Amino acid sequence: MVTNFPQLIFTAFIVFFSVTISAKNSIQKVYEQVNNGVVELHVKALAQPEPGKVNYRPTTENSLGSGALISDKGRILTAAHVVETATEITVIFNDGSTTSGHVVWVDNLIDLAMIQAYEVPKELQPLRLANSGNYNIGEQVLAIGAPYGVSHSLSVGYLSGVRDREPIPGSNLIPRFLQTDAAINQGNSGGPLFNLQGDIIGIVSHILSSSGGNNGLGFAVSIDTIRHIIDSDPGIFLGVSPHLLTKEQALALNNPFGYGLLIQQVVPNSIADVMGLKGGKFTVTIGRTPVLLGGDILLEVAGRPLTNLEEAIKIRQRLSEYGKGDRVTFKYLRNGKVEQTFWEFD
């Protein structure tokens, strides 16, 4: 058999070129389809405690993140660490219009949060959430966000791994994160990770990096975990950054109960702030983590003691069940004295 090598090479080139153009057009099409649903978040938040700085003053600092509009009513998914201590949130849409937003709920254990935008441009289509499990290692994925403030930047890569964490006590949730080699940097946090159908398969959480920049190891909260949290109703946002005490830590703080939730920071005008709860004033380092001391230690909510993580999660679930007119009592320790306050749902 005689083979026409020039013709064979030409045919292979045409096939390769066609596939490349097809893939390129597919990515362009997805980007054009979903880009308007990606938002940029400019956040003023309480400054985090710094190791080596003993006295803490609750000043604010500016930060940047991204989000995914998933409702025409203005609901936006983002990362918890972007907004968990936010005092002011500005939402910037692709057409340049802006609005304010507030935190609806935060899940610190998963690094996921929901915010509410006060206004949404007319005819802006919300993004679609993929079905749970609708992803495969090796498939091409797209991330859109604002790395270093460069708005609506596209990065393309592959889903390079699926990573499950330890089950969360008191729930049937095993947190799952999707690993990608798509370039992810500061400012991408909270932005969506898409498949080639234009569906959200993850919300960008963090990177593993020795330099602080992209090293090919980015992680996003998986759509399975996102749907589980939304369906389970994360409840209300109290407006505190917590540190759950071990028995040893509680006793070291002269807390005779041997348990409790040490309040680190209280967001101004939040539920916790209105109730009069106070955050810490002095920074210590436990392991490598800066912890604020001197704040209130929350002991009980609605009569349930905060003895461990499982109980804390059950309390959060219970808070989601209260409705208008319900009154919940919060018992806390301040300066060695047990006090209490309450919140009435409206």
Automatic annotation (TrEMBL):
<dbReference type="InterPro" id="IPR001940">
    <property type="entry name" value="Peptidase_S1C"/>
</dbReference>
<keyword id="KW-0645">Protease</keyword>
<dbReference type="InterPro" id="IPR009003">
    <property type="entry name" value="Peptidase_S1_PA"/>
</dbReference>
<keyword id="KW-0378">Hydrolase</keyword>
<dbReference type="InterPro" id="IPR001478">
    <property type="entry name" value="PDZ"/>
</dbReference>
<protein>
    <submittedName>
        <fullName>Trypsin-like serine protease</fullName>
    </submittedName>
</protein>
<dbReference type="GO" id="GO:0004252">
    <property type="term" value="F:serine-type endopeptidase activity"/>
</dbReference>
<dbReference type="GO" id="GO:0006508">
    <property type="term" value="P:proteolysis"/>
</dbReference>
<dbReference type="InterPro" id="IPR051201">
    <property type="entry name" value="Chloro_Bact_Ser_Proteases"/>
</dbReference>
<dbReference type="InterPro" id="IPR036034">
    <property type="entry name" value="PDZ_sf"/>
</dbReference>
<dbReference type="Pfam" id="PF13365">
    <property type="entry name" value="Trypsin_2"/>
</dbReference>
<feature type="domain" description="PDZ">
    <location>
        <begin position="215"/>
        <end position="336"/>
    </location>
</feature>
